[in-house]
């Protein structure tokens, strides 16, 4: 058990909003996993809605900065994966409803 | 971690002139429609040739080149070879376009000069794109489409220059034989294949569509490429059969392209009908009607159906596809430059907040009505309707320019 739970890390990341769709990354279902060790090192596994996202680097930076706001974090590693590929079924119901999916 | 270029958003000051000048040419092209007379609408009329260059070079190519400065790294997933070259491209394209437009209208002696300046501008563009593509280790379908389309552009502008020299009387050649090759290389080979490749990245990106087969796009690009080559050889060698086969293949190519767009549209999770989505609908409906009118022309042989098809392809399909994407690209670039450094520090706008709702809707309505009325005017051979359509187009183009300035100046 690390310093922060997955839920606490997700809550921190939920402050990051995709400016194109207007939803946060967690409710979009883009954050796949997060864990923190006893030293405060955090690893986030996430994806993006498209490989050709022009905000790719910036979004990773925002996620990193959002997690670093948790007071006892040390290193934050954000890994982007493309498998499983994101699709709308991974998003929260409120997102699907708002988009009309 | 997957490493992707950080040069996804070149400085806005580099791209802005392309869009602003493109927007001005959109207004001028709309105003130029007042100068048409239905009696004289044919592809060899200097007024029409001048208008086509005003619209295609001044608005379509100018805007596409600016958009490519941002989209090439997004699509190719590598940074530009030398993005600064874009600072030289727009002034040259601007000067060359004006010389060609005035050359066709008033003095053919200007054409070689305009042709050379346009050639230099486009060669810089094509070479920059080629050098950027060489940085890519493995080409996918979309990257391949960029390579193919720019190769066609390369040959298309050489044909264009030869024709300009012929027009001015500097060299002796059969311009009518080269015309189909030039038109097909630039419009089918460059503009259409560029649109096919880029839209398959951008439309799913904005609609959040996934899990569709790329096979129809593969077929569409292949058919269009073969079609363009056949038309080029057909017109050069004087073999009509080759040309007709080329026309047929490119016609079928557009049907396959429309099919994949239709699949994306049907399966898109993001169903909101914003100005972008509606612009694309108008664009693709124009494409379908243009294809139908093209079919009618081949059956009936009446040239005004072909003119109406060409009109809908240009102002309808190309025009709305470009104006629609401008409503996505400019807010992104302005947001990236002005607001992205403030994320996490203060409240920043969403991209959708940067659109002016009234002028963008006005543009959509007036431009759509204008395109439809002019298409009817060409089919029904009515000068009055043509002027009425032009009035709508001018108001639409002014509203578009106003929207563009609003987005650029958003603070």
Give structural notes:
The complex is a heterodimer of chains A (101) and B (411). With 101 residues, chain A is an alpha+beta fold. Chain A is built from three helices and three strands, in the order αββαβα. With 411 residues, chain B is mainly α. Chain B has three domains: 1-137; 152-271, no CATH class; 302-334 and 349-411. In chain B, 78% of the residues lie in helices and 0% in strands. Chain B has helices spanning 12-32, 46-76, 86-105, 110-133, 141-168, 175-207, 215-237, 240-267, 275-300, 303-338, 357-380, 383-408. In chain B, helix 1 (12-32) packs antiparallel against helix 12 (383-408), helix 3 (86-105) packs antiparallel against helix 4 and helix 10 (303-338) runs antiparallel to helix 11 (357-380). The two termini of chain B are 35 Å apart. The A-B interface holds A 15, 17, 19-22, 49-58, 62, 65-66, 78-80, 82, 85-88, 96, 99-101 and B 1-2, 4, 6, 8-9, 70, 74-75, 77, 201, 204-206, 208, 210-211, 269-272, 332, 335-336, 339-340, 343-344, 348-352.
